[in-house]
Automatic annotation (TrEMBL):
This is histidine kinase. The modification 4-aspartylphosphate is found at residue 1257. Its EC number is 2.7.13.3. SMART domains: HATPase_c, HisKA, HTH_ARAC, REC. Residues 954-1166 form the Histidine kinase domain. PROSITE patterns: HIS_KIN, HTH_ARAC_FAMILY_1, HTH_ARAC_FAMILY_2, RESPONSE_REGULATORY. Residues 1361-1460 form the HTH araC/xylS-type domain. It comes from Flavobacterium commune.
């Protein structure tokens, strides 16, 4: 921390002293330390390469700087070359862009860093060196690309190309006559001249592998040569003992010249067109006229102050200034050949510099041609040629008396833009940017007035060319046109030292009568009228007077403006004023008097006023732009317009906070806003008011949207100030040029609001927080510097890509023209930097990826392009930038990026895919054809099977109706007591045959059932179950005299099975056994069990099955019996399928004429069943539907119907007339029968006749039974009628469909007459139980009514809830009638009567009365009301009728009922 504090003190001190020493020399500096990315704070050497990168040789390696970040390099153990330490003392760039360096640890070796590959190389990699040793003394880098490594005693090595090929020049290699090479000079033809201790050898360009030729025969030379210079047609070589050789390039001959100076020529240089300068090490220097040969010597004889011994040249500047040092002394010599004078500049070091060894002499020339000098052991200084002195950065200032600062620089360097880079021991690297412009500042801050606010707030030039400056120190200072201070103006109109105003001045203007109007913020307006004497004024003060409507509207004056007619306009924080003079009385016209415009009143906070070429006033407020025509009545709305931010399609203002205006010479209107940039009026309407605006913001190139001032110069450029920056805008090409170098001129202070002025000379003045910035715009030249745009980094998935053989980068991205990426490397970033070091923060960038981006991406100062999920293809990445002054320059860079396709996304892959698809299509086609053939054959077989099945099913359906007509009458006759017994016996045979036929029909229909129905598995006692079925066949066995046995080998054998399926299995096996077993044979049924299985066997001694048919007996419809007992061929097929669905097995053995044995194997338990079956935990022993029926006599449906002759109406809907007639015959004794032959007729009769019960077939013409049921249930008039459906369909799905639409029952054909009658009676009983619910209804709130869902339909339930609610609401209304209730419900009287009677058993009148009596009973118990009051409350107007009705209901009078329930 202490070191850093000292460093910052040094830098601040240096800045202060530089400003002090150089006055208006404008500059800024920036310091970079280790924490900024620098590898070490000691920098030993600085260069700039051809591209523009700054390279630093530090004590901790090599560093490259691009204006934003440092990229550091040093050798690592894995490198082919490893430096002993990373301290680098010297660096230089060669033709190929490589950086050559010499290291501190081993100065006898040379190292090279290649930025393209980021790899190090060293001379230790050279092989076959003489004596295995080569101590390098110099590294000479030439424009031809050759790099010469010189050794004092071991010859030289030429590095010939970028691959580090080399040629050794050494006596042992017979390539040179000596091993001492003092220097290598390269001429304009790129020939290399080796200056040795034994003459001069030449290596022609391009002939590096040939032996050199000697200018002097190699055996005749005794002189050593050290230096050379090239003229137009000659090359001069300087050697020992004053020897000079002149080589003629044309004739390839040479001449010698012997100087009188008996000393070694160490430097020979061209001084001008006529003279050559030769410098010796001991005898001074001389000039030689090229044409006359005249020699002028300069030594201690004619220059007594020159110490010629050990003289060392430093630099020749400006062709006439020779700088020399003496290695034995500090300081530096300057000889001026123009005036022939020698000046010695001693090393004026301070006490803080003595702790260090003497610093080396430095002579640098910047881009302006100024010379900067550091004497040996002295301070870095600037040479002042006019006074012939060095202006030193001395550290003796009293600002830092305790500082240990040394202003003797360790190294320094000027880059291409004239920026100074230097290091002072441990100060890191310091960049000093010198302003190239002529900005000047005038400090107006008065140190005698203590205040924290000293902003300049008003500028004005009067008609005497004097400049008035008003500040927030509440002062007005007057300067003459040369910025010489005249004095301070006081509020009394006189000049007065340090005069203070009560409030700050914000605006100053001069009218046509030379009166000065001064507006203050808080103290109104002062009018200064000229009086006798210079700078003497008569003062009139105007302020707001609440009692005078014609006074100033507000004392906070921001702007006073004189229009083209001479009228004065005043803008305040509370509105606009116009000054008028009548009878020498000043009046302020404003909204307090003549102006009534709401727009002027609304937009009252005024900051600025201007006038366009047509005379329209533009008034800037904090709430928008106010434009008005002063020539017209401002109370008319068409003469005043306001412009604000809008969402219209036409571009509007970008901000409502207007700061300043500028009207150009061409009449263009520019509007500066506080936070929205600049707006320009681009079109106007016919009246002259603005229509459209064009906005300039950050996006268009402004450095900030916060504008403070705007003004046009004489060249029609617009000058703009933001917080800290000055901007020049060229309206023609709409370019913004940013001048950040005004910052140090203004001591890094900020500009102030709307304080600008253009003087009559064209000079511009801008106010800032401590003074004025002033300049002549034509002297501010544009910065056309075009920085190199470098690609600095490449990342994949946000990780930097290193240069190696396995990465996409074989060389650095900046040296790549093309990058190849894999398909999975399509997330990448590219970093870039424009190498402009003046102010990198001002550089803006734009980039695009052609083929991916449609347009350029303008990203301001963002330096990284991010791309994600880039598809395969070839793209060109392009990037461009501005320079540091904001100019877009032609420095576009591009690089091709190829994203390779994945293997599966290449052309070869697509060909393979196509072949595979074709192959698959062919294979699929072949497979499809094969499958089609198989399916065709299977379909034919299936069609045949389906035809058989459909035939049997259709026949079975058709047989059900006739069977019903057979079974029904027979049952009726058998149950009729009038039928004789002898006939009943005959009818019994008919009934048995009918039952058998019905069983066959059911067996056919069971095919569909066993495939569609889900098995319901329960635990069944197989012993009991089989015994019950076994007993059904005993009578047949007795008739046929068959030995019929049941063998049970274990007791209480239980099996998990479906009851119906098991019954079908046993019944089919026994039926077949009895069918094919002759009389007096045997049939045995056996049941057995082991650990894993339960075995059921049926063994008969029948005719058996022939072997040829045994493989197909389980096929459907397979029948091989040609006897008198025909078969459907489905029994055994059904048995097999049902057994397999139980996960069981069927086995059989059979021999012709001996018999057959069928064995069924069931698994024990139920774990083998899947979710395809339903497991029932307890065995269900349901009684048959017939057993459940306990009544066969009709019942009365309604109250008191038993005593009435009225019968229940039953509607029969059946298309078969015979069946319909039969149903009518069996029911007409008990019910009133209505008939309909189809669904449509049935529905009409339902509506017209209101039946109490409906029996309907399902399969009918016109309208089937299900559709009829839907219409009945959806009609409010019929929804209550019970319905029974009759059908030949027996599947559970068919039954569920009918029941889901509200069928009360579902009976399959053929049916039992008794069963049908019983179901009708049970359904009527259910309806009667429903009626009992309403009869027992005794709740105070109708909303609590909640009948059971199975008794009535949802629609009937809703109707009854509504009926109850309506009755409750009208229970005290004795005029409430049945018609009223029916109207509310939505039914006519008849339909409503039938509905209520069906649902409740009461007529509507009885039902209403019953509800009222029940409510009365509640009130009798729960209230103390009189009986008369209760009667009226429940709708009875007649007390006698109420008492009678109550007694009929409860058997007690109301009084008795109340007393009995107390």
């Amino acid at each position: 921390m202490k070191i850093h504090t000292k460093i910052y003190s040094i830098l601040f001190f240096l800045l202060s002293l530089m400003q002090y020493c150089f006055g208006q020399e404008n500059f800024s500096f920036k310091n970079f330390l280790v924490e900024d990315g620098l590898p070490h704070n000691i920098v030993n050497h600085i260069i700039q390469d051809k591209k523009g990168f700054i390279w630093l040789a530090t004590t901790n390696g090599l560093s490259k700087y691009n204006g934003y970040r440092f990229q550091n390099y040093k050798t690592e153990p894995k490198d082919q070359v490893v430096m002993k330490n990373n301290r680098i003392n010297w660096i230089a760039e060669d033709y190929y862009g490589r950086i050559w360096m010499k290291a501190y640890a081993n100065e006898m070796k040379a190292y090279c860093f290649d930025p393209k590959t980021e790899a190090f190389w060293g001379t230790e990699l050279l092989k076959n060196l003489p004596n295995n040793n080569f101590e390098i003394s110099q590294i000479k880098i030439h424009k031809s690309g050759l790099v010469w490594l010189l050794s004092k005693k071991n010859g030289s090595i030429a590095i010939t190309n970028k691959s580090y090929s080399y040629k050794i020049y050494h006596i042992q290699k017979h390539t040179l006559n000596t091993n001492t090479v003092n220097d290598v000079f390269e001429d304009s033809q790129k020939n290399s001249w080796l200056l040795t201790d034994k003459g001069i050898a030449c290596v022609p360009f391009g002939k590096i592998n040939q032996a050199p030729f000697y200018l002097i025969p190699k055996n005749n030379s005794s002189n050593a040569f050290n230096t050379a210079v090239e003229l137009d047609d000659e090359i001069w070589f300087g050697g020992t003992n004053g020897m000079i050789i002149k080589y003629a390039k044309g004739t390839k001959t040479y001449r010698t010249l012997k100087l009188a100076l008996e000393a070694n020529i160490i430097k020979i240089e061209k001084l001008d067109k006529q003279r050559i300068l030769a410098i010796t090490d001991q005898k001074g220097f001389c000039t030689i006229n090229i044409y006359t040969g005249q020699i002028v010597n300069y030594n201690s004889n004619n220059l007594p102050n020159l110490k010629v011994k050990n003289l060392s040249p430093v630099c020749l500047t400006k062709g006439q200034l020779l700088w020399l040092t003496n290695n034995d002394n500090l300081g530096i010599y300057l000889f001026n050949f123009k005036n022939q004078k020698l000046t010695y500049f001693p090393a004026k070091t301070d006490i803080y510099s003595t702790s260090f060894s003497p610093t080396a002499a430095l002579v640098l020339t910047d881009s302006k041609g100024d010379v900067w000098v550091q004497p040996r052991g002295g301070n870095f200084s600037k040479y002042d040629p006019s006074n012939n002195k060095l202006i030193s950065f001395t550290s003796s200032s009293s600002y830092f008396p305790n500082s240990n600062f040394s202003n003797s620089l360790h190294t320094a360097f000027f880059d291409k833009q004239g920026n100074l880079w230097y290091n002072s021991q441990t100060t890191g690297i310091v960049k000093v940017v010198f302003s190239q412009t002529n900005f000047k500042s005038l400090h107006t801050h008065n140190q005698a007035i203590p205040t924290s606010r000293n902003d300049v707030r008003a500028l004005f030039q009067d008609n005497q060319k004097n400049i008035w400056v008003a500040t927030k120190q509440n002062q007005i200072t007057i300067y003459d046109k040369k910025f010489k201070k005249i004095g301070h103006l006081s509020p009394n109109g006189q000049l007065q030292t340090n005069a203070i105003w009560e409030k700050p001045v914000y605006s100053i203007i001069q009218d046509a009568q030379s009166n000065i109007w001064i507006g203050t913020r808080g103290n109104g307006i002062y009018k200064f009228s000229p009086s006798n004497g210079a700078y003497s004024f008569a003062v009139t003060h105007y302020k707001n007077d609440s009692s005078n409507p014609y006074s100033l509207i507000d004392d906070n004056v921001y702007s006073i403006f004189k229009d083209k007619t001479g009228n004065l306009w005043v803008g305040t924080l509370k509105g606009l004023n116009r000054i008028v003079t009548q009878n020498q009385t000043v009046q302020f016209i404003n909204t307090n008097n003549k102006w009534k415009s709401n727009l002027i009143k609304k937009h009252s906070s005024i900051r600025c006023i201007t006038q366009d070429s047509k005379g329209f006033l533009y008034i800037g407020t904090t709430t928008g732009l106010l434009v008005l025509d002063p020539k017209k009545d401002l109370n008319l709305p068409q003469n005043v317009k306001v412009y604000e931010i809008t969402k219209n399609e036409n571009p509007s203002l970008n901000s409502n906070d207007i700061i300043d205006f500028s009207i150009s010479k061409k009449g263009k209107i520019y509007i500066a806003t506080a936070d929205g940039g600049i707006s320009k009026v681009v079109s106007k309407n016919q009246a002259g008011f603005p229509l459209q605006f064009k906005n300039y913001t950050l996006k268009e190139g402004l450095p900030s949207n916060n504008i403070l001032s705007i003004v046009e110069d004489n060249d029609e450029n617009i000058w703009i100030t933001t917080d800290y920056l000055l901007v020049r805008f060229n309206p023609i090409d709409e370019r913004f040029e940013i001048f950040s170098d005004v910052k140090p001129v203004m001591s890094y202070r900020n500009f102030t609001e709307a304080t600008k002025i253009k003087l009559d000379t064209g000079e511009l003045l801008f106010g800032y927080s401590e003074g004025l910035l002033h300049f002549f715009p034509d002297q501010i030249k544009p910065n056309n510097f075009k920085p190199y745009l470098a690609l600095t980094n490449f990342q994949l998935f946000n990780e930097e890509v290193r240069i190696n053989q396995s990465s996409p980068l074989l060389t650095s991205i900046d040296n790549n023209n093309k990058i190849e990426l894999k398909h999975n490397q399509n997330f990448f970033n590219i970093e870039f930097a424009a190498l402009d070091y003046i102010n990198p923060e001002n550089i803006k960038y734009a980039y695009k990826l052609e083929g991916f981006d449609e347009n350029w991406n303008y990203v301001n100062n963002q330096r990284t392009a991010f791309y994600t999920n880039v598809p395969k293809g070839s793209y060109t990445f392009k990037v461009k930038s501005t320079n540091s002054q904001g100019y877009w320059v032609n420095n576009e860079r591009s690089i091709t990026i190829n994203v390779k396709a994945a293997f599966w996304n290449t052309t070869i892959a697509y060909i393979v895919y196509a072949l595979l698809i074709i192959g698959c299509i062919m294979l699929i086609n072949r497979t499809v054809i094969t499958i089609y053939r198989l399916k065709t054959n299977a379909k034919i077989e299936k069609d045949m099977f389906d035809m058989k099945q459909k035939f049997f099913i259709d026949i079975s359906h058709e047989l059900r109706t006739p069977l019903t007509l057979i079974a029904g009458p027979i049952e009726y006759l058998m149950n009729d007591t009038r039928t004789p017994e002898i006939i009943k016996k005959q009818l019994l045979y008919v009934s048995q045959s009918t039952t058998r036929l019905q069983r066959l029909v059911n067996q056919i229909l069971d095919f569909r059932k066993i495939q569609d129905q889900k098995l319901k598995i329960s635990e069944i006692n197989l012993t009991e179950f089989t015994s019950d079925i076994f007993n059904n066949f005993i009578e047949i066995a007795q008739e046929k005299k068959i030995n019929y046995n049941l063998e049970i080998k274990a007791e209480d054998i239980k099996v998990w099975a479906d009851r119906n399926a098991l019954e079908k299995i046993i019944m089919n096996l026994l039926s077949n056994a009895f069918k094919y077993t002759p009389d007096e044979k045997a049939i045995t049924v056996g049941i057995n069990k082991n650990d894993k299985q339960i075995i059921l066997t049926v063994i008969d001694e029948g005719i058996g099955i022939s072997e040829e048919h045994q493989n197909s007996i389980f096929n459907r419809f397979a029948s091989f019996n040609k006897s008198s007992n025909p078969s459907t061929g489905i029994g055994l097929s059904m048995v097999k399928e049902l057994v397999e669905r139980h996960h069981g097995e069927v086995n059989f053995e059979s021999k012709t004429n001996i018999g057959s044995a069928f064995s069924i194997y069931f698994k024990t338990g139920n774990s083998h069943f899947t979710d395809e079956v339903e497991i029932i935990s307890e065995e269900e022993n349901k009684e048959s539907d017939e057993q459940k029926l306990i009544k066969t006599q009709p019942i009365a449906l309604y109250k008191n119907q038993e005593n009435s002759s009225e019968k229940i109406k039953v509607l029969i809907v059946e298309d078969d007339i015979k069946l319909r007639t039969f149903l009518k015959n069996i029911l007409e004794d008990d019910y009133e029968i209505l008939e309909a032959e189809d669904g449509e007729t049935g529905y009409e009769k339902t509506l017209n006749s209101s039946p109490d019960f409906i029996i309907s077939d399902i399969m009918m013409p016109k309208m089937n039974g299900v559709d009829l049921l839907k219409k009945i249930r959806t009609n409010i008039e019929t929804s209550h009628v019970p319905v029974i459906l009759l059908t030949a369909k027996t599947t559970i799905e068919s039954q569920l469909e009918g029941l889901s639409y509200g069928a009360d029952d579902y009976i399959t054909k053929p049916f039992s007459v008794s069963y049908l009658k019983a179901r009708i009676i049970n359904l009527l009983e259910q309806r009667k139980r429903l009626q009992s619910i309403f009869e027992s209804y005794d709740k105070p709130n109708a909303k609590e009514y909640n009948p059971k869902p199975y008794l009535i339909t949802n629609q009937d339930e809703q109707i009854m809830q509504k009926v109850m609610m309506v009755i409750e609401e009208n229970i005290d209304n004795n005029d409430f009638s049945v018609e009223d209730l029916g109207t509310i419900i939505g039914l006519n009287r008849t339909s409503f009567n039938n509905k209520i009677k069906s649902l409740t058993g009461f007529t509507p009148v009885e039902f209403i009365r019953d509800i009222r009596i029940k409510r009365a009973a509640q009130l009798l118990i729960n209230s103390q009301l009189l009986i008369k009051e209760i009667a009226y409350m429940t709708g009875f107007s007649d007390i006698k009728y109420f008492s009678k009705s109550f007694k009929n209901k409860y058997g007690l009078t109301p009084s008795e009922y109340r007393n009995g329930n107390k």
